[in-house]
Write a structure and sequence with these properties.
Helix content: 25-40%
Oligomer: single chain
Bound molecules: L-homoserine
Radius of gyration: 19 Å
Order of helices and strands: EEEHEHHHEEEHHHHHEEHEE
Distance between the termini: 10 Å
Number of strands: 11
Number of helices: 10
Length: 309
């Protein structure tokens, strides 16, 4: 029987994962957003409740726009009301706009008489996320929708590959309480990449993926380095270079900016994660920045239905 009200949870995510700008992301299931979608008598999409300072106009809101995209071309006698509960801090680099879009389409899809398969929701979630970032890219959206470490190839349609990760690896995520606009952090990027950087970054991406597939933690350590985007964005995050040095000194495999920042992530071999978390947070505190931090396995589940009535 079709539900009238469905709530979905979508996890936060680490975008780019250092070597895969816009194409690589992993879920971070310790935090996320909830969206409740309810069938309403009025057609179209309405946002009836939202936590945080975010647009209520559906076309300007990542969740609202994603559901508009899902419903486009359907003739329905009913509409969808959305209630959005943000668990992910705004402008944190933790994939919050993607998570709201994903939770919204996953919940609203369940209101349809014939729900789409999960893979068909990706393009609608991308459409929603683009409202916030000003560009169509799937690194956060795909990780939040499917869970795990996800590589997205191509755009039309995007193809997603779930990448295996050595089970001992943990993600340390440190969020200094700053706001960075993804749109602005994208706008500051140069259009051109030096050939030498392209070669080295390609080698890093290939080596990183090979390390993941072959369970080679040391190969991952040697390749988890962003030579293209991180150097351009580092100045947005006070103390970033010292935070990174502290993570590497604490034996992290690599450390970089999560998405557009300001959150910083480090991948660690299991037992090294706590020392990296403490060291990274301590450096941010010397900059006068309070932090939230988490340690989690790489990936975890993608979006899920938490309630239906
Ligand atoms: N890949 C994106 C970026 C993630 O770094 O700009 C944030 O949307």
């Amino acid at each position: 029987m079709t539900s009238n009200t469905v709530t979905a949870f979508a996890p936060a995510s680490v975008g780019n994962v250092a070597v895969g700008f816009d194409i690589l992301g992993h879920a971070l299931s310790v935090i996320g957003d909830h969206v409740t979608a309810t069938r309403s008598a009025t057609t179209g999409v309405r946002i009836i409740e939202i936590t945080g300072e975010l647009p209520r106009e559906p076309a300007l809101n990542t969740a609202g726009r994603a559901v508009q995209s899902l419903l486009a071309g359907r003739t329905l006698a009913w509409g969808v009301e959305l209630a959005i509960r943000k668990g992910i801090p705004l402008g944190s680099g933790l994939g919050g706009s993607a998570a709201s879009a994903v939770a919204a389409v996953v919940a609203a899809n369940e209101l349809l008489d014939e729900p789409l398969p999960r893979s068909a929701l990706l393009t609608h979630a991308i459409e929603g996320e683009a409202v916030a970032s000003g560009s169509r890219h799937a690194d956060n959206v795909a990780a939040s929708l499917f869970g795990g470490l996800v590589l997205t190839i191509g755009e039309d349609p995007p193809r997603c590959m779930l990448i295996p990760v050595p089970s001992s690896i943990r993600c340390v995520l440190v969020h200094p309480r700053l706001f960075i606009s993804t749109r602005e952090a994208r706008g500051m990027l140069r259009d051109v990449v030096a050939l030498d950087d392209l070669v080295r970054q390609s080698a890093n991406l290939a080596g990183f993926l090979a390390g993941c597939y072959t369970n080679n933690v040391e190969l991952i350590r040697g390749c988890l380095e962003d030579l293209v985007i991180e150097p351009q964005r580092a100045r947005l995050i006070p103390g970033f270079a010292a935070v990174k040095r502290a993570a590497i000194a604490a034996k992290a495999l690599g450390c970089s900016i999560s998405g557009a920042g300001p959150s910083v992530f480090a991948w660690c071999d299991g037992q090294d994660a706590e020392a990296a978390r403490v060291a990274m947070s301590a450096v941010f505190r010397t900059q006068g920045l309070e932090c939230d931090s988490w340690i989690a396995p790489i990936g975890g589940n993608g979006a899920m239905i938490t309630e239906r009535r």
